[in-house]
Specification:
Two copies of one chain form a homodimer. Chain A is α/β, with parallel strands linked by helices.
Chain lengths: ~375, ~375
Amino acid sequence: MPEPSSTSPNAALLGRPGGRAGLDTPALVLDRAALDRNIAAMAAHARAAGVALRPHVKTHKSVAIARRQVAAGAIGVSCVTLGEAEIMVRAGIPGVHLTSPPVTAVKLARVAALARTPHHGLSVVVDHADTVAALSVALRDTPTPLAVLVDVDAGQGRTGCTVEAAPALARAVRSAPGLRFAGIQAYAGHLQHVPIRAERRERSLRLADRLRGLLRQLTADGLTAPIVSGGGTGTFDLDPEARVFTELQVGSYVFMDVEYLRALADGRNAPPFETALFVATAVVGVNQPAYLVTDAGLKSFATDGPKPEPARGAPPGSRYEFFGDEHGKLFVPAGVTRPALGAVIECVTPHCDPTVNLHDWYHVVDGDTLVELWPVDARGKR
Amino acid sequence: MPEPSSTSPNAALLGRPGGRAGLDTPALVLDRAALDRNIAAMAAHARAAGVALRPHVKTHKSVAIARRQVAAGAIGVSCVTLGEAEIMVRAGIPGVHLTSPPVTAVKLARVAALARTPHHGLSVVVDHADTVAALSVALRDTPTPLAVLVDVDAGQGRTGCTVEAAPALARAVRSAPGLRFAGIQAYAGHLQHVPIRAERRERSLRLADRLRGLLRQLTADGLTAPIVSGGGTGTFDLDPEARVFTELQVGSYVFMDVEYLRALADGRNAPPFETALFVATAVVGVNQPAYLVTDAGLKSFATDGPKPEPARGAPPGSRYEFFGDEHGKLFVPAGVTRPALGAVIECVTPHCDPTVNLHDWYHVVDGDTLVELWPVDARGKR
């Protein structure tokens, strides 16, 4: 059995003033007040826009954060892996929705088992007739039909059927024993980081037009779609305008990584959300004249996006570069005092979702103090 | 406490014929026979070359694999994080060596605690006088002095002091209470993937010349260096030629990822090691004409190197591309039958070390059968 990460080397720092700067590194650091402000800001936005929130767990994989989102009014959570959904259901989170179609025999059996455990609303998506048939077989002995959304490809070409194929699939769900047609999902992952806000808006509204057409056709077929689920942090304020989505699957707004800070910086004075997540890393090498060596590399930060951005504790103008699995290079502007050997600095995470997935614990801070340790419950869960 | 990954959804498949093709995906798959052949081939090479092996745990993070390496003759294991070293010592692995200098107060305290637990040989490196002083303070109450190697920068510029600074540091170690000078480490990480074998060889021999000069100077200072540790899979057959290293820190040879398969393909007919590690992924989307969608993305494969290469179960000539956190694109050559929805294929891992770090379990196979589940014990351990 893998060593359960039941102890963090940092547990001894809990409650000690100044503990944040003394964290054993590398460590994922979460500013609780900033997190709560982000959750409140998105909740207020959704209320004002008349749209529900089913925030995406793939970003944080944390029961504690899901609970805060639900406490602020979210109707449930979205999960991309079945392992995430299992953990959220077991923790009593309501309205757990699986955003990727379960396809293999093992996954279908796991969905059936989950549907038979006590839950407060569980839904999945399908994008192929074979999956509808297989899911129906897997669920034939389940007392309550499972809520199923038809996943429509919003143009990203990942999961989802075509808009044209959706009505037939919806009818197949309606007539499949064990299943209940609950609506439509259309996640425009490819639009979330479009850098020009006007272009993001136009393409989002065009997608909404197509979905409205689909909904009209479903109505003509005698099918109502109570749920239309989609949207992300990049289009959080554009999707409600289209008045087609009943709920938003926003995820990254809780943390605001380098990617989203850049994407949302266009078109308004300041993003409505703030950075809440950092990785603390120590200076472990000072023998090079051109840079310092830190102890967080590509096993501590996602490498698919931009670079981590040095923040707290790093001299202004510092720059980070990857330097292998366990190290980074920190370039400090000339003429500035360099952080000392052993000094801890914090970096804004490049792409938050896969960065979080590399860590076992959130080191939850209030100012300078480590106040809580939250596990990354669904880390690595498929 | 994070959910301990004490159960794999695949445990039910153990021993069942054909279980390999029915694995819940994504899953890390390890071919046990190929692993053992790689371990035996490196052990035979080292014996013939008259050099010891202290294979690097950063690659596999597995007690089970470390035990197989020691059983084949390795004198110990190398660890880049203290968390890896703690797990190996607790598991009773002998000769655990920490290849990165411990610097922060927390890390020094953890080293001291580890040095006080029962171990069969523990060593660390230092590359700065301040660390020698701090380590000596941390270890002042330890009954047996800790073996310390001076880490010399082999030209990569990551950790290590200059060759010129090494003698003074070695003398500092010798006179520091609680420490014992045990030798030199010089890891040429930057040479491991140099694509032209002749260039790799020439630069490796040049490094060896510099190290020989350093060793002569140490001898003149009355310091003997019983250990000279370094080398990797890319230079495994070049380093012994230089007759300066007493031991090799080879890591990736156990698995052979896409990176090393390419690096070692130059200069001989076939690499002396074979691919033993794969990631199994299922086809979960067949709605796109141009490609299939699989369920392994950048939370299942490292993204810092080349792309995963489709192998077992994929039509010859197939090509993989990343498609977000949890998905991939599989391009199949025209005119070839496409794998069906739900089919499981396997990909060679791009960069094995950070790929392994994304998984909880090795699914150990013998041919088509899942025969064991080995935990990735030190996954995420810092």
